[in-house]
Amino acid sequence: MRSHRFYTPWLLMLPALVWLALFSVWPAINTVTLSFTNVHQLTGGHFIGLKNYWLLWHDPHIRDAVINTIVFMVICVPLLTLLPLLLAMLVQRNIRGIAFFRTAFYFPVIASAVTVALIWKWMLDDRGLFNNLLQTMGVVHKTVPFLTDRWLLLLSAIALTVWKGLGYYMLLYMSALGSVRRELHEAAAVDGAGSVRRFWSVTVPGVRGTMILIAVLIAVNAMRVFSELYILGGATGGVGGQDVSIVMLVQQAASGSDGRLGYASAISVFLFFLTAIPLLFLTRLNKNSQEES
Amino acid sequence: MTATTAEDSRERETRGKRPARRGTAVRHPDRKGRSPIFDAPTPHGLVLRYTALVIVLLISIGPMLWELSTSLKSKAEDVYTQNIQLLPHHPTLGNYGEVQNTIPVWHFAVNSLTVAVINVTGNVIGATLAGYVLARLKFKGRKLLLGVFVATLILPAEVTIISKFQMITSMGLGDSILGVCLPDMIAMTNVLLMRNAFMALPKEVEEAAIIDGATVLQRMRYVGLPSVKGTLSVISIFAFIGAWDDFLWPLLVLQSPNKLTLTVGLSYLNGQWSHDPRTIAAGTMMALLPILALFLILQRYFFRGVAEGAIKG
Fold first, then answer.
1. Alpha-carbon distance B172 to B6, whole Å?
2. What Rg value do the Cα atoms of chain A yield, rounded?
3. Is A293 helix (H, G, I), strand (E, B) or coil?
4. Among partner residues B82, B270, B292, which is closest to A136 by beta-carbon distance?
5. Chain B: nearest CA to A72, how far in angstroms?
6. Is B211 helix (H, G, I), strand (E, B) or coil?
7. Per-residue pLDDT at A71 exceeds 70
8. Chain A residues lying within 8 Å of B287, measured CB to CB
9. pTM of the model
10. What is the pLDDT of residues A74-89, one digit of tens each?
11. What is d(CA B8, CA B3) in angstroms, rounded to the nearest whole number?
12. What is the pLDDT of residue B38?
């Protein structure tokens, strides 16, 4: 019994194949090609070899963006790997009203980065909620420049990213927690392990795979940050222009009627290699753990 | 990972019915359902749990409520005061009118909605068809093709955005809503998610349908689709939210002030067209409330789909 004609699969896949070719494979190749040219938005261009990469290497904004990215990663990875796990444990038990809490914790994920950044921008304003609270409680006596100081602005964007990410990674952990065996918890409890001890020696090893995956996702996402910094600090990256991300530089280079698409593409290729580092790390780890078992 | 979860929950179910499973029964002969030893819900523990839940709740939706409150405060009320007022004295919708007078916000909303609906439609159709084929039909080159689909996952969208931008412009679709929709109409991630969902279907069911003479489309419609509803709803919800929330891509593509989507329009409202935090708050709420409401309506399907294993790295 034949299940289908030879052309049926291709016919059904046609839309997806067109999109795969036009908006995934071709742009990937073309980005690399463009990065060796000085193509502009309106004027076209020609091959200029590695000049864009030379420019990139000496661009002080790139240096700032890379430093910011590293700070982002160093703070986000541990916080967003650990806090959502605790949160997932908190909502794991089916107690009354838990569905309401789960849904509400997911709200920041549903909201667009632009709207939540605008909300935070108002809270972090010189005369906004945070400054008023801190001054009323007598913690500080001067206005805290959350949005104008080079590092405070970066930290604010990081705090916003962590806040927005909590619910997302919580959801990823929830399904992983389901597969941690209750027997192990009970055995540990019988052996006299307290809840902190059980967390580190039963729960954490139980969700280890998911944890590594999540850490890698956070690292990659930290490199892709855009809207949070763009809204909090403005299009040019804060007062001194130092609070930029790599994607912001791509957008800046390509914007306007004289967008430098060639240079923007070189930054994109650079971004790709950066994001490949955590992914390579992940495949290596997976290979090692497969060899072990 | 999915397999172990399913196995585990099945095991838990059977254990509920027959508490005398050997290994564990030896250790806890008196056990029925939850063990009283270490994680029984004591009143004390329950209070702690709810306290923690409420604190996290305040952290996650408190900022949104503060913004909502600001958007309802009248011009006469000082929003900057150190004497913090959580609730507006004389709630007013005046700021929402102010947004309407400053930017064509309804127009933006319609634009965002158009992009979202087109994205959902494209992804549901495109990803279902391709996902089914990759999971259930045998043909030459399937493995290779699957490899190409998977390989695209390592490309963050931002990396290829310039090239896509150049392509859309050269197609004459720059500064148009269609140009915003086009690249994301079929996302490769969704094709793979649908493939995973269709893979879970037992082979025998489909073989029976083939013997009965069902065509590929009939098998997909009547045998496949009913079992992938969960994943399909997760994909639709994510496609809608993704399109509604997207910022970088429409910011690059759109220039004319009357063609913007809500997120791009809001980013201009902030600072360029308005300095009043009440107006900006009202604009923010107009983008935020519809998507939260939609999620609330659909959350049941969303969490069910997730539980079925729709999102796994």
1. 50
2. 24
3. coil
4. B82
5. 17
6. helix
7. yes
8. 112, 114-115
9. 0.88
10. 999 999 999 999 999 9
11. 8
12. 55
Show the 3-state SS of A152-198. HHHHHHHHHHHHHHHHHHHHHHHHHHCCCCHHHHHHHHHCCCCHHHH
Question: What is the number of alpha carbons within 13 Å of residue A64 lying toward its C-beta?
Answer: 18
Query: Could you report the per-residue pLDDT of B199-233, keeping only the tens digit for each?
Result: 988 888 888 888 888 888 899 999 899 889 889 99
Task: Write down the residue that tokens 């509920």 correspond to.
Answer: B16
Where does residue B104 rank: exposed (0-12), middle (13-18), buried (19+ CB within 10 A)? middle
Phi and psi at residue B147, to the nearest 5°: -60, -40
Q: Other CB atoms closer than 10 Å to residue B293's CB: what's the count?
A: 10
What is the rounded distance in angstroms from the CA atom of residue A184 to the CA atom of residue A191?
Answer: 11
- What's the angle, vertex CA A52, arms to CA A47 and CA A55, rounded to 5? 145
- Collapsing DSSP to helix, strand or coil, B270 comes out as strand
Contact A234 B271 (CB under 8 A): yes
Token pair belonging to B240: 């809608």
* Whether B82 and A104 lie within 8 Å, measured CB to CB: no
Residue of A nearest to B85 (CA): A129
Which tokens sit at B126?
Answer: 């495109």
Reported ipTM exceeds the 0.90 cut: yes
CB-CB under 8 Å, B162 with A268: yes
Q: What is the reported pLDDT for B205?
A: 86
Number of residues that this document lists for chain B:
313
